[in-house]
Design brief:
The protein is of the alpha/beta class and 413 residues long. The chain is 51% helix and 13% strand. The strands form four sheets. It has a seven-stranded parallel β-sheet with strand order 3-2-1-4-5-6-11, sandwiched between helices. A two-stranded parallel sheet has the order 7-10. Strands 8-13 form a two-stranded parallel sheet.
Length: 413
Amino acid sequence: MRILIAGASGFIGSALGRALSAAGHQVLRGVRRPQAADEVAIDFSHPDPAAWQQALRGCDAAINAVGILREQGEQTFSALHTRGPQAFFRACAAAGVRRVVQVSAQGADSGDAPFLASKRAADDFLRGLPLEWQIVRPALVHGEAGASARLFRVLASLPLTPLPLGGRQHVHSIHIDDLCAEVLRLLDPATPAGQCLELRGGKALSLRELIATYRRSMGFAPAPVLPLPGWLMNFAARVGEHLPGGLLDTQSWKMLQSAGAYVGTPYPADACHPAQFITPGEAPALRQQALAGWRALLLRLALAAVWLITAWVSLFAWPIADSLALLARTGLTGTPALAALIGAALLDAVLGLATLFAPGRRLWLAQMALIAGYSAVIAVCLPEFLIHPYGPLSKNLPILAVLILLFAEEERP
C-alpha cells in the first residue's frame, strides 16, 4: 500500500515509517520542512488542505501521528491536535483515501486536561467522516528514542531516585514496537474498520516499579527512593511551565496523578505484550547515555560552587590582612596587592556564574589555564602549601580532572 504519515519525523511517526517500509509498503513522510524525495510538507500549525489533498491522491491509507506534550508559540494543542488533524482528515476524504489511522492518547475519552480534550475533539471529528477510520489510544509509549524513556533512564541511573510522592502513581505503558505492530494490523483492509482501541502492554506498574525496572535493565544496583512531597511537585510543575523543553508542567503533573484511572481493558489481547524496557544488547550504551544525562550538570554545579564560595570567602570571610600578607610573599604589596585580591575574587565570581549559565570549551580551557597558573605561583612562592595537611594545592588535581572531562564532552565552543 501507499501510505502517508503526518508527523513522520516524531518518535512515533518515524518508528511507524520504519515498520511500514520493512513490511513492504510505500511510505510518504509528512514533515514540516521536507528535504528528502519521500517527504511532503505537512504542518498542522499552518493548514494547507489543497496541497495536502494533492499529496494524498493515490494513497491507500493515511496516519496522523502528530502530537506534542507542551505548547510552545504557535505549536498549540488546538492547532496540532484538533484543527490541523480535522483539516487533514477532510483532505483524506476529498482525496479518496480509504483508511485513516489516528494516533490519539490514553484517557482521551474522558480526560479534561487540554492535551486529552484536544485529542478527543479530533477523534470525534474523524468518526463523523465517510472514511474507514481507526483510532488507537496508546498508554505511555516507550522505546529507546522516546523522550519519556530518556527521562526514565536518567532517573533510574541516579544513586538516589527522586520520585513524586514516592512514585506510587500507577501507569500503563506500551513499547513502540507493539504500537507499530497494532497500527499495521489496523491498516490491513481485512481488519474491520471503525475501531477505537485502548492499547497498553501488560499490567500497570507504579512509577517506582517502572524506574526500578529500567534500573535493573541497565545493570544498576537497587537505589533508595527520595519521596518528593506534593507541594514541591506543584511548585516544580508551575516553574516548569516557563522552562522550554521540559516534560514537567501543571498539565503533565495532573495527568500523572490521574494516570491510574486510564487502565481500560486492553484490546485486542494478542496486541498487548509484556512491557519491553531495555534488552541486554542495548543496556551498555543506554547506561552510559543515562549517566551522561546528569553527569555534566553535577560537575558544573560542583565547579560553580567552588568558584563562587572562593569569591565569597576572599571578599567577606577571610581576613583581608592575612590575604594581603600572602600576596606580599609573591611580590605584591600596597594598592596593587589589594587590587589583585579584589580582581581575583571578582574573576572567581564571574567564572562561577559562567559555569552555570554559559558553559563551553573556551571557558573550560580558561579555567584550566587559570588553575595551572595559580598552582605554579603558589608552588614557587608559598612552597609550604605543597605539603599542607589539608592539601590546598593537591585538591586542584581533581578539579583539573573535572575540567578535562567537561572539555572532552562539551559540544559548545
